[in-house]
Amino acid sequence: MVGKRVYDWMYRVWAPWDAVGIRTELRGLVESGRVTPQTHQTAIDLGCGTGANVVYLAEQGFDATGVADAITWVEGDLLADHIDGLLPTYDLLVDFGVLDDFQGEDRARMAATIRRLSHPGSEVVFWCFHAARSDLPLFSMEGPSRLYPGLEPHEVGELFAADFDIERLPEPPPSTNFACFLLTRHGGADPSTN
């Protein structure tokens, strides 16, 4: 995982992931009507960075957590068992490149946070570096590498298939070593017990 100090420094100098602004995958889901504030009233951007996505969601009418009147900003540890200031669950969860920053047990803990903050019917827009480590270059400044691989294809199912239906969105295409998924929480156990 990239350390907190590295991220602090990058946000002061240049955070390339925030330079893109509102993510096209999220905009596409909202503008197509597939995800709306009527069907997904409460939304949270997990690891919102400078907040472009959460501001966009608030402007579209979502009750967004992540500076407009409809946004609540919360600082917290996404690996913690509890984060003060959050609703128990959300209708829409957004993760653009946070889960894949974690490795090992921390990755499992972040996946547990996603399960805990969702309920049956919740949807998760989840973007990540996504490729078999063996298929990656040793080092890259433009995406995943063997030194910084992101998620291997089998991991998405291992982390989420027990609780979510998993749909890989068409963009970005597999040849890019990036992926965006729409996870839909299926019915069952109370999310507070996960």
Q: Would you kindly provide a brief summary of this structure?
A:
The chain has 194 residues and is an alpha/beta fold.
Structure description:
It is built from 6 helices and 7 strands. It has a 7-stranded mixed β-sheet with strand order 3-2-1-4-5-7-6, with helices on both faces. It starts with a helix and ends in a 9-residue tail after the last strand. The chain has 194 residues and is of the alpha/beta class. The model is unreliable at 189-194 (pLDDT under 50).
Largest sheet, described in full? 7 strands, mixed
Determine Rg (CA atoms, Å).
16 Å
Number of DSSP strand runs: 7
Mean pLDDT across all residues, rounded?
A: 87
Please identify the oligomeric state: single chain
Which range best describes the helical content: under 10%, 10-25%, 25-40%, 40-55%, 55-70% or over 70%? 25-40%
The largest beta-sheet arranges its strands as 3-2-1-4-5-7-6
- Count of helical segments? 6
Secondary-structure content class: alpha/beta
Distance between the termini: 24 Å
The topology string of helices and strands comes to: HHHEHEEEHEHEE
What would you call the shape?
globular
Work out the strand percent.
Answer: 15-25%
Write a concise keyword list for the protein shown above.
194 residues; seven-stranded mixed beta sheet; 6 helices
